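debug: dumping io for the single-chain case to check the tokenizer round-trip. Nothing else runs in this session.
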Amino acid sequence: MGGPYWRMPDMLRPNSLDCYWMPYTPNRAFKADPRMVVRAEGVFYYAPDGRAILDGSSGLWCCAAGHGRARIVEAVQRAAAELDYATSFNLGHPIAFEFANRLSGILPDGLDRIFFTNSGSESVDTALKIALAYHRARGKAGKFRLIGRERGYHGVNFGGVSVGGIMRNRKPYGPLLAGVDHLPHTLDIARNAFSRGLPEHGGVEFADALERLIGLHDAATIAAVIVEPIAGSAGVILPPKRYLERLREICSRNDILLIFDEVITGFGRTGQAFAAQTFDVKPDMITMAKAITNAAVPMGAVAVSREIYDTMLANAETGIELFHGYTTSGHPLACAAGIATLDTFRDEKLFERVRELAPYWEGAIHSLRDAPHVIDIRNLGLIGGVELEPLAGRPTVRALEAFRKCFDAGLLIRCTNDILAFSPPFIIEKSQIDQLVEIVRGVLKTID
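debug: decoded output
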């Protein structure tokens, strides 16, 4: 065990790795051969031995403006010195209201009522509860069903896992929430392999599966449909053309709320503030987290239409209109980080930069088409997915090997199933895009 971790100076190296139960990690394997980073700046992490690791995934889709941004750091420091904490239960502090107002300015028109959470998982469960409470407030308590999608990821809380469609996230936990059903996923490699941008085939067909669920359950029982505009954790699955528009049409016609889970697509990843704007489809709610604070402080939010908010206030049975919230909803440090992040996006024109880089990114990522084992490539904005042919009887092995070898070669990526996922910071340079692609190409040549 002579790797970088074991050569870490004593002042940095933990005296034991045993106590920390790491999330979504094979703990035994990791702790036998750990991969560590000790600092980050710009588009790079740094390993204990000083090696620079190009961040090809913005941490976990969240450090969109890059790492160590002074403006954000200083905003958090000032907030901590001025107001370290205040509850949002029957008490306010100005920065939470300011941040909500600032968020409303970049959201689609009419989605300007903001509920703060601490994560994407909490944002999803908040949105699902609001959907159920809204229908009850308008005298339609019979609308209780929630519709998710196969291969969808909506966090790890019980509501999100229930509407999510990734088997391993669901299997250990029993029956989950009742009254949930799922649309089919939209990945169709047979017809849409190596699409650049939105795939051509299957949009209306896949969306019309909602009509079949309505026929099975009756629209009078369905409260909401929740989808990711682009599925990230399932391996960068893009909506075919006309898919989201068709879902919106069906939901509107049947009095069903449409929720976009934009935890990964929000805050510029597709070239607009939100994918709803990129695709010109307005949902009734948007969930968000990750890049909302550039991940400097954990935070999430739900943007709700004014119609939902006003209906719930007008028909409340008690003084409190929504019996829901978190101890750290609207935390002062998170709001300070969020405002500084919005300022950074605006002043550095980072959403515009995504649009400018997107064609170069597309060409670069699709240049891997002839690399070993590649069976599909998908992209939009600064998002990319490279799907590998799985080893017979050993799914995920190739992608995990690629992940490890990329890290050793100086590149951090994500892998899910046999898909390599990329979401670099918006400040990445074209030469660094080239570096990312060449590392991946070289690694794939070494994998059986």
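debug: round-trip ok. The chain has 17 helices and 15 strands.
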